[in-house]
Amino acid sequence: MSTTTTPTARPRRALPPLMALTDAAADRLRSLYARGQQGKLLRIGVGTKGCSGLSYQMDWVDAPGPGDEVVTDKDVTVLVDRKASLFLIGTVMDYEVKALTAGFTFTNPNEKGRCGCGESFHV
User: What are phi and psi of 90, to 5 degrees?
Assistant: First the structure.
């Protein structure tokens, strides 16, 4: 009599969200969506630029395209270019106001380094 064992499948780990928004980023996007960019959506992507090779790109679009992932967090929707998904998994988008500047920032757990001016990053 022969006995065979069947391997049991390991439980799958839950993937981190593609992208999350801080309260400040969600509030700023709500404000932009309600005023100057009414009826549009923010698309976030990654392009080649700068000393480190990659940079974040943001564009206003009228509707999701076939290559867009729709991310909704804190009742705010942003689009992520599917080609950038692997670079952005787990990224947190924030909106910071400093003494002389204000803008969206990204905390990306996939980044391995940034250039000195902060313009670009690499994974």
Answer: 85, 5
User: What value, to the nearest 5°, has the Cα angle with vertex 46 and ends 45 and 48?
Assistant: 145
Residues counted in the chain: 123
| Residue among 94, 75, 65 nearest 34 (CA) | 75
SS3 64: coil
The pTM of the full predicted model, rounded to 2 decimals, is 0.77
Give the contacts of 104 (CB within 8 A, at least 6 positions apart).
25, 28, 58, 93, 94, 95, 96
Could you give all domains of the chain from N- to C-terminal order, each with its CATH number?
19-111 (2.60.300.12)
- Could you identify the residue written with the tokens 């509707």? 63
Q: What is the pLDDT along the chain (123 residues), one digit of tens a residue?
A: 556 666 677 777 666 678 999 999 999 999 999 988 888 999 999 887 656 577 889 999 999 999 899 999 999 999 999 998 888 889 999 999 998 989 998 888 877 666 555 565 656
Report CA dihedral (28, 34, 40, 46) to the nearest 10 degrees: 0
